[in-house]
């Protein structure tokens, strides 16, 4: 019984998160957002303008 409640609750949260992400992508924390604007190095945070890799070998995918 308790397990069922937990599963339903998790499903509910997942649905809410899915809908929220679809409707309000900008409301998400930056970590969860898809990359927008100028690409930045995921390691050092430097902007990677005109290039794909950073000096620190990080990739700005
Ligand atoms: Zn870097």
Q: How would you explain this protein's 3D organization?
A:
This protein has 61 residues and is mainly alpha-helical. It has 2 domains: 1-30; 36-61, no CATH class. The protein has 1 helix and no strands. It has one helix spanning 2-23. It starts with a helix and ends in a 38-residue tail after the last helix. The mean pLDDT is 77. Zinc ion (ZN) binds at residues 41, 43-44, 46, 54, 56, 58.
Brief digest:
With 61 residues, the chain is mainly alpha-helical.
Helix content: 25-40%
Return the string of H and E elements: H
What general outline do the C-alpha atoms trace?
A: elongated
The overall number of domains is: 2
The DSSP helix count reads 1
Mean model confidence by pLDDT:
77
How many individual β-strands? Answer: 0
Small ligands present: zinc ion
Rg to the nearest angstrom? 18 Å
Key words describing this protein structure:
1 helix; single chain; mainly alpha; elongated; binds zinc ion
């Amino acid at each position: 019984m308790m397990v069922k409640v937990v599963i339903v609750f998790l499903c509910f949260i997942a649905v809410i998160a899915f809908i929220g992400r679809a409707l309000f992508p900008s409301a998400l924390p930056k970590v969860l957002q898809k990359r927008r604007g100028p690409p930045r190095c995921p390691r050092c945070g430097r902007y990677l303008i005109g290039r794909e890799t950073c000096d620190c070998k990080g990739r700005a995918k």
